Amino acid sequence: MEKKIPPCPTTAAIDADIIAYRVAFRAESDDPAFIPHMIEEYIENWLPADVDDFSMCLSCSRNDNYRRNIWPLYKVSRDSQQTPEYLQEVKDYIKDIYTCEYVDKLEADDLLGIAASSYRSVAVTIDKDLRGVPGWHYNPDKEEASVHVSQEEADKFFLIQWMSGDSTDNIPGLWRIGHKRALSFLKKWEDEDTISNILDMYTNEKFIPKKTCNLEGEDLALAMARCVRILRTGDYNESTQEIDLWVPKVGV
To answer: Exposed site from 34, 102, 216, 249, fewest CB < 10 Å?
Structure first.
């Protein structure tokens, strides 16, 4: 019997990081006085149909991100990149004017993931990584309407990323395992313990990435999984501000 899909929420959680960067870059060539108008324009274009309320999600600083404690090289390549001149001004405006979600140690992706997987809000972003989270999603650059990602689809996406890593975020994953090859492994392991197989690959010399931060075996595998995995509902305790890090369930 198929599981009934929860109805699409009428609220949206918007990836304000991307909007802030886009607006800040535009402000360098346009009049910065139009920053409020630019933000409003993006929000209007990004809201999916039938949504009557929204919140803006902003990331903590890169150094404060909890993933840096797991993998010191996480997004380190971005540290040397020059940020647009008006970025902080744009972010401050968003925080002042709109309902804004911001949590120390968490990225906007995590806030979006928690909101989507709890079916509290539609996750609105152009970042494909959010499809590793179950719930309702909307990519304003590609989609006409919100789409639903099932638990099975989200878990499959996560397993593929665990193997392939994310070069944009400086997460190596397994050596020379891209998205297509990772998918082929999943198809081959259809009736096997996928989690155990991936853990074994992280102990196989031919698959171990060149940069390991002195981690090896299961420690390396867990670091890669926890970096690519976006938080879901139940993974973050608001009262204690503690993160429940993912633990592999072998043999399930």
So the answer is: 249
Rounded CA-CA distance 94/160 in Å is: 34
Domains and CATH numbers, the chain: 11-149 (3.40.50.1010), 151-243 (1.10.150)
Residue type, 40: E
> Among 145, 144, 147, 120, which residue's Cα sits nearest to residue 130?
147
The residue to which tokens 């999984």 are assigned: 225
pLDDT in tens, 197-230: 999 999 999 999 999 999 999 999 999 999 999 9
Residue 1's pLDDT is what?
A: 46
Question: What sign results for the dihedral spanned by CA atoms 69, 75, 79, 83?
Answer: negative
Q: Which residue has the tokens 């806030």?
A: 111
Count of CB atoms situated within 10 Å of the CB of 144: 9
